[in-house]
Specification:
The complex is a heterodimer.
Chain A (H helix, E strand, L loop, with lengths): L3 E12 L2 E12 L3 E5 L6 H8 L11 E9 L2 E2 L5 H7 E4 L11 H5 L1 H5 L6 H14 L3 H4 L12 H13 L5 E5 L7 H14 L4 E5 L3 H7 L2 E6 L2 E7 H6 L4 H7 L5
Parallel strand pairs in A: 3-8, 3-9, 6-7, 7-8
Antiparallel strand pairs in A: 1-2, 1-4, 4-5, 9-10
Helix pairs in contact in A: 5-7, 7-8
Chain B lengths: L1 H25 L1 H15 L5 H5 L13 H31 L4 H15 L2 H16 L4 H26 L2 H9 L4 H12 L1 H15 L4 H4 L19 H9 L4 H32 L4
Classes of the chains: A alpha/beta, B mainly alpha.
Chain lengths: 254, 282
């Protein structure tokens, strides 16, 4: 395999005593799109949330993890979670731009919220670049100072991707980013991800098999908290090794 | 036979609807009477002098209530400064840890606090603040009023924070923002209208409180701006003047009542405006 950005070794994730992710070992390849698939409740989202250490924020559910995750060889458990999250961005299922901020402020929210000061013209450049990368610049360049929540759902989600990109992360995690969007907005985001992978590694949880087939280079198949199969998307979709994977792909359950 | 029972039922139905309407409209009567009476008695007294000059000597006509207006404003400011940070922090904590044992205890305490008679609050603050400082003061009054408004602000802030979607908090955390930045720059701004509403409701609740001020702010016939000295307040003035034997003071008390009621009404209107204009849709 090519360059590994993120390596997961023996990962278990818990809510209290309940184990949601079981002994997962996987390497994510640099500048590729990896899709994480599986039936509902199989631990995909929990797994994704372990990768930027946002799983453990949920102290109310007594969330915790075991095992190691290495970002470019560095163990993220030993890094401050704040630094981990600056290098591993995240986009959520439902678009969640900050409702009290303008579009402009939403894009640079990562800097503002982390107290990173820059000159106005530097921020201008960051905003323009991030919005251009997410194909939003043309649509919003005249309304940069309007609230982000006035945009359509698809635009909001692209704004959220721009917000994550603006921090120049190594990896972007997307948790079913198109499940709340219509087909046209979905197509735009898929196209976008394809372009983005030149600069950033993308890990996307998706329910939609066709989507995984269209955009991903690698696919990981989760079942009941375990990683059953992992390989190139082509191999997994045409010649799966595991029977369960095949059953899932052919629509026998899921 | 059939016809008769139908008529009976229609009659019962009408009676019931009429009863509900009658009882519901009864609510308006005391408020309307009260407002009408206060306006009738009070509005004639209101003029520039009334608002901006000191009281005249006993038995003289004219004179104003500037000292107790200033006192009420001062007490409210102190109460807000003391209670709002505590209330917002408390609401943040119990919202962040809904099932925590300490949260449950706090919630219970807040409910209790809401039911404690205001005169008791006055006595407690007398023991805590007035006795150690050996002086009635507007600070003590502010503390008493602040405690009175705590439960209101805590409750409304908690309700507001519950409405702020978890996804916003996560969006901020996922950008690497530390907890305090998330609170200050995402959660609180998103809930600002609700928090402000709570503060305004709290203020309108305490503006007319008399009992907690009897042992704390005490009242003062002179203008005072020192927070360590006794201070007058509108409700205290109304209480003192209306129990006095002088007719001139009675009419001043009516004027002060009018101002107090108008203040509370205006505050409620502003609250509605704030909710309408500033509410953030997620």
């Amino acid at each position: 395999m090519a360059d590994k950005v993120l390596s997961v070794r023996g990962l278990n994730a818990y809510y209290g005593m309940k184990r949601a992710v079981e002994n997962v070992n996987v390497d994510f390849v640099k500048n590729k799109i990896t899709a994480i698939m599986g039936p509902s409740g199989c631990g995909k989202t929990t797994f994704l949330r372990c990768l930027n250490r946002i799983h453990e924020v949920n102290t109310e559910a007594r969330a915790r993890i075991e095992g190691d995750i290495f970002l470019n060889g560095e163990n993220i458990a030993k890094m401050h979670p704040i630094l981990v999250r600056r290098r591993i961005g995240m986009v959520f299922q439902k678009p969640n731009p900050f409702p009290h901020m303008t579009i402009y402020d939403n894009v640079i929210a990562g800097y503002k919220l982390n107290g990173i000061k820059k000159k106005k013209h530097e921020f201008d450049t960051i905003v323009e670049q991030a919005l251009t990368k997410t194909a939003l610049w043309g649509e919003v360049k005249d309304s940069l100072y309007d609230r982000g929540t006035f945009l359509s759902g698809g635009q909001q989600q692209r704004l959220c991707i721009a917000r994550a990109l603006a921090m120049n992360p190594d990896v972007i995690l997307l948790d079913e980013p198109t499940s709340a969007l219509d087909p046209i907005a979905t197509a735009k985001i898929e196209e976008l991800l394809n372009e983005l992978k030149e600069n950033v590694t993308i890990i996307i949880v998706t329910h939609n098999m066709a989507q995984a087939g269209r955009i991903s280079d690698y696919t990981a198949f989760f079942y009941l908290g375990e990683l059953l199969e992992y390989g190139t998307t082509e191999k997994l979709f045409t010649n799966p090794e595991n029977e369960k994977t095949e059953n899932f792909l052919t629509g026998r359950f899921g | 036979m059939k016809d008769l029972s139908l008529k009976k039922r229609v009659f019962k139905e009408r009676l019931f609807r009429g009863g509900v309407f009658f009882l519901a409209s009864l609510v308006v009567v005391p408020l309307a009477l009260l407002l009408g009476y206060i306006v009738k008695k009070g509005i004639g007294v209101i003029n520039w002098d009334f608002l901006f000059s000191m009281p005249a000597g006993v038995g003289e006509s004219g004179g104003g209530i500037v000292h107790s207006l200033a006192g009420t404003v001062m007490l409210i400011v102190i109460a807000v400064i003391l209670s709002v940070p505590v209330a917002v922090a408390t609401a943040l904590f119990i919202n962040d840890h809904p099932k925590n044992r300490i949260s449950r205890m706090i919630r219970f305490t807040v409910d209790m606090l809401q039911g404690i008679p205001s005169i008791i609050m006055g006595i407690v603050v007398y023991l805590w603040v007035v006795l150690p400082m050996k002086n009635f003061s507007s600070l003590a009054g502010g503390v008493a009023l602040g405690i009175m408004m705590l439960p209101i602000v805590i409750k409304s802030t908690e309700e507001t924070l519950k409405m702020v979607p978890e996804s916003l908090k996560e969006a901020s955390m996922a950008l690497g923002a530390p907890y305090y930045k998330t609170v200050l720059h995402v959660i609180l701004p998103a809930g600002l209208s609700g928090i402000l509403t709570g503060v305004l409701l709290g203020v309108s609740r305490i503006a007319g409180e008399t009992a907690p001020l009897l042992f704390t702010a005490f009242g003062n016939p002179f203008l005072n701006t020192d927070i360590f000295k006794p201070v007058d307040a509108l409700p205290l003035l109304i209480y003192n003047y209306s129990t006095s034997p002088y007719p001139e003071w009675h009419s001043l008390a009516w004027g002060a009542s009018f101002i107090l009621v108008a203040f509370v009404l205006i505050l409620n209107l502003i609250t509605r405006l704030v909710v309408k204009k500033w509410q953030i849709k997620y």
